[in-house]
Design brief:
- It holds the Pfam family Aldose_epim.
- It catalyses: alpha-D-glucose = beta-D-glucose.
- Pathway: Carbohydrate metabolism; hexose metabolism.
- Its EC number is 5.1.3.3.
- The N and C termini lie far apart (about 45 Å).
- It is built from two helices and 26 strands.
- The protein has one domain: Beta-galactosidase, Chain A, domain 5 (Distorted Sandwich).
- The protein is about 5% helix and about 40% strand.
- The mean pLDDT is about 95.
- About 45% of the residues are buried.
- Strands 10-11-12-13-26-22-21-16-19 form a nine-stranded antiparallel sheet. A five-stranded antiparallel sheet has the order 18-17-20-23-24. It has a four-stranded antiparallel sheet with strand order 1-2-3-4, with no helix packed on it.
- It is globular, with a radius of gyration of 18 Å.
Length: about 325
């Protein structure tokens, strides 16, 4: 097994980001509150070694394809049925479960990984590159690129679990999400192909509201998922999360068309993460990506096909401030 490596970068304002080479997992990200106090705003495991077994994808890059692929098949290509009969989050040992090469330069950490042809069933030797950069404007810039030597498919996301206040739940975090539609999911959490208007539903975050109002509702889809675990189609590319107690604000600007919002519905007291994260709804993931199961929904989804002459490019900026 390759050696687990760690790295830390810091900006001039004292914001700090730590990450490890396994799955590009972020292990700490600090941001100031309205009084200038620096605290980590992401959940983490108790030790770096626990990321080697990371069933909840804590802080990691997820792929080659994030989310589920129905029946683990695309255009006759069989992928690993990691959630039989479906494929989820890149397979049993996707790029999350790999040691990446890691290099630190200034206020940026760069990770690279060559995913070989046939890994988890995917065609093509694919070179992945992920860059985490902390700017002096208190921005975390996450850039993810991929190039292939054979036609394949790529749809990455980043899976940080955010809690801007360090309290036991994120019920009082205010989410503002510029989306008129959310994808309808079936009983296996796969898109049905139907888009639902958020208007007059618990999924309507267009004007901002506490996350708890949605995840404690009696809406059938939310009850079935145990909270939010749904793809929203972005009308504009900036999503805002605000913790009114600490004053922290995080604006998430992305070039991706979908924001999957997940409210840590499967964390529990047994999950070996920091104390504040040992329970359901203790964090929120804002996963910028293409539409889940995109190859099976060409009428509503942007293609995730990647050809040798093309470059996959995902860029998401997490901008921190206070109110």
């Amino acid at each position: 097994m390759s050696q687990l490596r760690e790295a830390t970068i810091e900006n001039k304002n004292g914001m700090r980001l730590s990450a490890i080479s396994y799955g590009c997992a972020m292990t700490e990200l600090t941001a100031p509150d309205r009084d200038g106090n620096m605290d980590s705003v992401i959940l983490k495991y108790d030790s770096p070694e626990q990321y080697l077994e990371n069933p909840v994808y804590l802080g990691s890059v997820v792929g080659r394809i994030a989310g589920r692929i129905r029946n683990a098949e695309i255009d006759g290509v069989a992928l690993t049925p990691s959630e039989a009969p479906h494929h989820i989050h890149g397979g049993d040992d996707g790029i999350t479960a790999r040691h990446w090469d890691m290099n630190v330069e200034g206020q940026a950490i760069t990770f690279t990984y060559l995913s070989p042809d046939g890994e988890e069933g995917y065609p093509g030797n694919v070179t992945f590159k992920v860059v985490y950069e902390l700017t002096d404007d208190n921005e975390l810039v996450v850039t993810m690129t991929a190039q292939t030597d054979k036609r394949t498919w790529v749809n990455l996301n980043h899976h940080n679990y955010f809690n801007l206040g360090g309290r036991p739940t994120i019920h009082d975090h205010v989410l503002t999400l510029p989306a008129d539609h959310v994808a309808k999911l079936d009983d296996e959490s796969l898109p049905t192909g139907e888009l639902l208007e958020v208007k007059a539903t618990p999924f309507d975050f267009r004007n901002g509201k506490p996350v708890g109002e949605a995840i404690t509702s009696e809406d059938e889809a939310i009850v079935k998922a145990g909270g939010l675990d749904h793809p929203f189609l972005l009308k504009e590319r900036v999503t805002r999360l605000h913790d009114p107690v600490s004053g922290r604000v995080m604006d998430v600007e992305t070039n991706q068309p979908v924001m999957v919002v997940y409210t840590a519905n499967f964390l529990s007291e047994e999950t070996p993460v920091t104390l504040e994260g040992r329970q359901k709804h203790s964090a929120i993931c804002l996963e910028a990506q293409a539409f889940p199961d995109a190859p099976n929904h060409p009428d509503i989804a942007t293609s995730i096909e990647l050809k040798p002459e093309e470059l996959y490019h995902s860029r998401t900026v997490y901008r921190f401030g206070v109110e």
